[in-house]
Amino acid sequence: MIALFVGSIGIAGVGTLLATISVNTSGRDFILAVLFIPVMYPLLLVLVAALNAVITGASGFEATFWLNIAGAMIYNAVMIAVAFILYDFILGV
User: Fold this and answer.
1) For residue range 34-90, what is the model confidence (pLDDT) as tens digits?
2) Is residue 83 within 8 Å of 14, Cβ to Cβ?
3) How many angstroms separate the CA atoms of 7 and 70, rounded?
4) Are 76 and 43 in contact (CB under 8 A)?
5) How far is Cα of residue 7 from the mean position of the Cα atoms in its chain?
6) What DSSP string runs through 18-34?
């Protein structure tokens, strides 16, 4: 549940920023997909690794799980901070 919650926060935060960037472009759908996939790849990678550690139940999976969750939270914090900093610049206010 923790990995799903952290992943949902990251996808919502970064998705909002990228949707704001692509709203004023001519190929909105294409630009959003092209930007979204590479930006979300690191988050999805650590979340899949965290869930893999839980599902396989290998020795030391608790440390691997929490290390990956911490990495996902740091990624979320950085990307959401960037979104807040760039929001006015993107909208041209």
Assistant:
1) 888 898 999 999 988 888 888 887 666 788 888 889 999 999 999 889 888 888 887
2) yes
3) 12
4) yes
5) 6
6) HHHHHTTSTTHHHHHHH
